[in-house]
Amino acid sequence: MGVQNGKDLLIKVDVNGSNTFETLAGLRATRVSFNAETVDVTNLSSAGGWRELLSGAGVKTAALSGSGVFRDEATDERARQIFFDGEIPNFQVIIPDFGTVQGPFQISAIEYAGSHNGEATYEMSMASAGELTFTAAS
User: Fold this and answer.
1) 3-state secondary structure of 68
2) First-to-last CA distance in the chain?
3) Closest CA to 74 of 113, 20, 119, 128
4) 41 lies in a domain?
């Protein structure tokens, strides 16, 4: 896989609950992270005293975040409504030349900022709220 364009990493939201996804408007920077807790099963008979981990155990999580400019488009409105209604809709993360991650996320934070001589900006954080699927890029 060669160098990828950062603008091609997209976060999309299901706009109406029917798996119709649209890119969140105004995003300039996006980030996705995947984590898995470890379960330590080391004991006195562990080979050489090395730590041992239980395969397939632990909680898996994913986090999405993005920042950009406020555009007051339908996806901005949808994101605000998701937050205030406490909804957990499906999101898609398009990772260029890698694949698509899809599943439920909760918007855990939205921050708005602006200065008198600049544009209004926002930052949003989302936490996985269920099983995620991965589809490799073809």
Assistant:
1) strand
2) 13
3) 20
4) yes
Q: Is residue 30 part of a domain?
A: yes
pLDDT along the chain (138 residues), means of 10: 72 90 87 94 94 93 91 82 94 92 96 90 94 93
d(CA 20, CA 122): 23
At 115, which CATH number? 4.10.410
Give the other-Cβ count within 10 Å of 69's Cβ: 15
Structure-token match 């807790």, residue found: 37
Is residue 114 within 8 Å of 120, Cβ to Cβ? yes
Q: How far apart (Å, rounded) are the C-alpha atoms in residues 11 and 32?
A: 9
pLDDT of residue 119: 87
Q: Does a structural domain hold residue 1?
A: no
Q: What does the alpha-carbon distance between residue 110 and residue 129 come to, in Å, rounded to a whole number? A: 17
- Please give the pLDDT value at position 138: 83
What is the pTM assigned to this prediction?
A: 0.85
Q: Is the dihedral of CA 18, 86, 134, 125 positive or negative?
A: positive
12 touches 98 (CB < 8 A)? no
Number of domains into which the chain is organized: 1
